[in-house]
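Q: Got a minute? One more chain.
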Amino acid sequence: MKYIHELGPLFHDVQMGGIFPDGKTFPDCIPKKALATIAKQYDKSKKQPGFDLAAFVAEHFELPPTGGSGYVSDPSRSPSQHIEALWDVLTRLPIAIGTDAKPPRQSSLLPLPNAFVVPGGRFREVYYWDSYFTMLGLKANGRWDLIEGMLDNFAYLAETYGFIPNGNRSYYLGRSQPPFASLMVKLYAEHAGEQVLVKYFSLLTREYKFWQDGLQDLDQGKRDSKRMVALGGADYLGRYWDEFDTPRPESYREDVELALTSMQPNPQIYRNLRAGAESGWDFSSRWFADNGGFASICTTDIVPVDLNCLLWHLEITLAETCGIIGQEDLQKKILADAEDRKRALLRHCWDDTDGFFFDYNFKTGRTTNQRTLAAMYPLFFKLCSQQQANQVADIIEHDFLKPGGLTTTLLESGQQWDAPNGWAPLQWIAYMGLKNYNHDRLAEEVRSRWVNTVKTHFEKTGKMTEKYNVFEESTHAGGGEYPNQDGFGWTNGVFMGLTIDD
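A: Always. Here it is, folded:
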């Protein structure tokens, strides 16, 4: 027993009993003595008359630290000045083993050798895909030291665990997040030159191996294995997955209660929930079965358009690096794989009738027909034709553009990655994708509306938040498993990236 989420009955009872309003709090707590000792004491104490579970937890565990909780924003500062000052508030010191700053004994925190930036609020650790968008702001403020340190942290995680986890917590070791490492490396290379690609070649190689794991099973005739799906012929694409099929420790009660309402076997729905968390879109109706609600979530049946665009970029970046270091045979193979992925993506995720990119459900053999901003990824990576980009742009302007920016989807499901919410990373992906295909007027409209939303909210509250309601300025964003968080890493980064030339 190494971590709190392995405590068995005690962990179950605390999470199901609602001792903490946020299910993430208990897994992040710090035990005051060995967990095995606490578990034995619990087995004995809970049988006593008048036993108080909350008091027992308070006696045996320390609450997780709330770094930056004393920070008060200065209302005289502009949003950009606020963000520049906030980087140090959101920065955490190294927690590497062997230093004075190592994690507390039996903490769920995973060691990291360098300082890193957290998103803020309940998110007290580094997060994988958040970090790319945070880096856009660090770049704007010249904080290349933090960018390099964070990349080195990801290289350390990949070397230690074989992949980059969702975040540096033990309970995230079954899954990753959208693979943005190649974009981070390319961003840093803008500053430090092409040798950056060589430095992080092993990171990107491990990343690729992780996402390709399961391919060997497909070659032996299986239809799907881990994060790989065979779609017939030479078409192999990726999906989201998790190594475990149990409730997420940080959302234990929510998962158990949802499973009670689902027709799926418990292991299946738990895996789908975990895979949805790996997607970063936790949660969205894009993962639901046709006409189904949350309990119909089927993430592992779906080949996501955005994931495969990211994997294509990873392949292209690896091939470029192979050219630098003289591995020509490997370069040719990876380039061929990238071309195969692009062809499969366009074949299965583009709908000629609707003129839009969709996720593909390989179990039903058709697209999901759910319009989402994930359709902007092929434009962001320049993977589609001008005609396809024009059709997508028309739908984005007609259906997705709202007073406050772009809505994530067109469906209001109560999930946070659906309407009416808008998210900073998707505004950036859409803005850059539109620029790539000369839709400058629409790109500027997206930029100006989103920037105005963030500015207006900051002027009223003094805060940057995780997400925004893009339909109504007076209504806060909501939905999901926890309240809207402030801080906030990727909002800060995208805001700086979109306003650097203002």
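A: The two ends are 53 Å apart (CA to CA).
Q: Perfect, thanks.
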